[in-house]
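Quick check before the chapter quiz. The format below is the same one you will see on the exam, so make sure you can read both the input and the output lines.
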Amino acid sequence: MRRSTRTLLCWLAAAAGARAARAQSAAPADLIVTAQHIYTVDPDRPFVRAFAVRDGRIVFAGSEREAMALKGQRTRVLALGDGTVIPGITDAHLHLLGLGMALREVDLTGTRSYDEVIQRVAAHARTVKSGEWISGRGWNQNAWPDTRFPTHDALSRAVPDNPVVLERVDGHAVLANARALEAAGVTAATPDPAGGRIVRNADGSPTGVFVDNAMSLVYRVVPDLSRDATRAAILAAVAEVNRWGLTGAHDAGVGGATLDLYEELARGGRFNLRDYVMVAGDSADVAHAYQRGPQSALYDGRLWVRAIKMYADGALGSRGAALLEDYSDEPGNRGLFVTDTMVLRAAAVAALRHGFQLCIHAIGDHANRMVLDAYEAALDSVPTADHRFRIEHAQILHHQDIPRFAALGVIPSMQTSHQTSDMYWAVNRLGWTRAEGAYPWRSLLATGVVIPNGTDAPVEQVNPMIGFHAAITRQDADGWPAGGWFPAQRMTREEALESMTIWPAYAGFMEHVAGSLKAGKYADFVVLDQDIMTVAPERILETQVVMTVLGGETVYERTPR
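Here is the expected output.
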């Protein structure tokens, strides 16, 4: 064939392709959204008045006039007037099944005394059969007049006929009554397990409180939920997060049986969430995940399975966070390492070799340093670009370790609402100087890292507006403390919005399909009843979700009042 003929044929093919592309781009949209305030979180075009959706993806974002050019006979137009639209919110750290289970257990959040805890549990006990296990979650002794750990005696007297296990708000300690202790076979002779602590009376007998790895002594005898009950809990949790504007979640610590249910629901079109799964570490589930390989955008973008979750230490509230120096309010205690450093280092090497992200829980400054050391050693062994390893929480950092996140390419995945929950007592735990390195968002951002934000639900409330407000004010709902708690560490509003949209997308290798309202990305968005980017800070917590849309389909809509 002559060169001129080949050139002509190539030109004709290119022209035909261009015409096809123009025809596709001009095809009618399924949905057009218009609003006065649309924040795209796209740096190339941060504000638009409209966008168009086709086949679950955004095909155009810009002016209303241009978007309406894509209107066809069957196009649905969502005209929001003075409304506010932001990208779908992704919670970068929550426990989906844990949230679903919390919705069916005795709710102990907000209790102001141990007596109130007992009253709620006793009231629930009257509704169940004798001998049936009772579970609850949410107690926090730091919010009570007596901030010491409770003992089981009063609970055992109030509920003598049912085994009771009550999880602390942070999920790192439980309180068991006498019937539960008996069922678990825990006595004064039971030794503390590695990485755990049985809180004891002076005579060595258990008080009923178990911290971190010691919790397994009780949980091993608690009956598992049935498959049907677990499925119902998952669906309830998905509906709950949709109600608060979430279209995505990073699901920290998922077991194989739970993941099987996720896949079953997603195959059936009943999983209205983009769930970035972190497989629970140190188990056969990890080996199975490695054998299967990294999985992305399964079931129309509902599931990603390419991350592993592990733990380095406990939590600050239960004095299980591993610190470089003693707790200021408990000399001699430096917290707990729940996983050996060599195990974490080996896990990091394995993750790199299998193409998986590793996400390690670390709260205390010693735990964070240990994880950074483990990551550095693993990356020396298996040099890898764009690994996006994460530290979950990264709450207390020594100033020398703050630059290491950027230097190693490690993402600090943090929960801004933890700061406003903990600030009332954190200085007592840490002392003033060390507290300056607590929740250091601005110091980290200044090094060039991003901070994906989350709630750790059910540890904190799902409502992302609590985290947005905390990020920009470092104050509670009553405006305390004046000016904010260590206010130099606040985020801007733009950063706070990025922290719950595009930064979680990046942290989950999803920035090319989610996190902003841009052509080619999933049509995931949230309609709010006020403009959180301009409204007075004290009004942010009044914000209501009007509608949550996933892939162009409404998954939550507020009932008109």
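If your answer matched, good. Confidence is low (pLDDT under 50) at residues 15-24.
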